[in-house]
Amino acid sequence: MRHSHPKARPLVLSFLLTAAGALSMSPVTAANDNSEVSVKGVIRPSACRIAISEDGKVNYGTISATAVSRSSAGFAPGQREVLLTVHCELGTRVGVAIRDNRAGSRADIAGINPYGFGLGMFDEFKLGAYTVTPAATATTETGEAQLLISEDNGVNWAPSTLRMIRADGVAMFSWAEPGTTTPAARRQFQTSLRVDAYLPKADALPSLDQSIELDGSSTLSLIYL
Prior knowledge:
Blueprint: E1 8-15, E2 48-52, E3 57-58, E4 79-92, E5 94-100, E6 117-118, E7 121-122, E8 125-126, E9 129-134, E10 137-140, E11 143-150, E12 158-159, E13 172-176, E14 186-198, E15 217-224
Parallel strand pairs: 1-3
Antiparallel strand pairs: 1-15, 2-4, 4-14, 5-13, 5-15, 6-9, 7-8, 9-14, 10-11, 10-14, 11-12, 11-13
């Protein structure tokens, strides 16, 4: 029987610059006669941590407005790549899940649904979408491993073969012995993630006589299997 586990050390993979979070204050409420302290935690045989190169920032720099198509959606300003590293104290079976923090801003671009993650909004305009594609292989402390993808929250696994990650929250990836499809316990894991951005046609964007910042954001979380 599979048990659900809390996610460990989520990382945000951001695209261009994101604004700092606002400080909010809650109104003062009446005090009660009693107050409760809740102490919780999970003891595991091994703790893992996750890291992404470039602090998880994928920057496309300045994209010329003249390059955006006026006739069709799907203009791609290029590919970027980041390196994902997972380190565990002991050999551990884990998966990496991705959640889109800008899901409501995903533009409908043919060919990448349901794999598109949102690129933010400007007024009522959806600025585009991006995809995340893990490499087909990974490096572990014992050598090369097969990268796996699950599209049902880790129930079934299949070889990655450069498959894009679904953006609807049910996908995760892991690693296995070459030629197998069962996630393997490892202490260290490293693979590259390719990011491809796509923009709608010009008339689906705000006026391009102004600067418009893309603002995609995804959270990568470790899931203990």
